[in-house]
């Protein structure tokens, strides 16, 4: 187990060094340093903005009695992007910035959800059920006449924000 951890760190260092040297050889040292600084500043600004949006989306979903699965997943991906920005290096900065941008984060979220649902099919059922309308009610046991059809009586419930009649 220790060997894989050390191999991962070594691979990370090699990839970051190769990326920095490649960028340096193309645009020069000064511009490379500028790219790193501007990327970090832009990333921190994006992380703050998108983090606040995700927190607000979670609050809105909860207020509307919706299960905030996509919102929580977005929040976790934004947090991961923020962590990647704090790890020094060009490749991690680019990966962090990509996770902070809504279009790429949406792609990653869909892939993560599909992978999780493949591993645990119950998650797909829960996601589908969470997107439906929630109906509050009570179960009343009444004897059913054996000679006739089952009759279910009920009424409609207005959506949130819709006036009751």
TrEMBL record:
Keywords: Membrane, Transmembrane, Transmembrane helix. Residues 134-165 are annotated as: Disordered. The keyword Membrane applies. It comes from the Bacteria. The chain crosses the membrane at residues 6-24, 29-47, 76-101. PANTHER family: UPF0716 PROTEIN FXSA. This is FxsA family protein. The keyword Ribosomal protein does not apply.
């Amino acid at each position: 187990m220790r060997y894989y951890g050390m191999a991962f760190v070594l691979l990370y260092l090699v990839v970051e060094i190769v990326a920095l040297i490649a960028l340096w050889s193309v645009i020069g040292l000064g511009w490379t340093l500028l790219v790193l600084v501007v990327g970090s500043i832009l990333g921190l600004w994006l992380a703050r903005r998108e983090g606040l949006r995700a927190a607000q989306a979670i609050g809105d979903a909860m207020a509307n009695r919706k299960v905030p699965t996509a919102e929580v997943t977005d929040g976790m991906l934004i947090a991961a992007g923020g962590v990647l920005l704090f790890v020094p290096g060009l490749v991690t900065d680019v990966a962090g910035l990509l996770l902070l941008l809504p279009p790429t984060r949406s792609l990653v979220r869909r892939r993560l959800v599909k992978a999780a649902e493949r591993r645990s099919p119950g998650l797909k059922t829960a996601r589908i059920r969470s997107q439906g309308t929630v109906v509050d009610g009570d179960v009343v046991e009444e004897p059913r006449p054996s000679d006739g059809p089952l009759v279910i009586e009920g009424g409609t419930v207005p959506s949130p924000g819709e006036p009751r009649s």
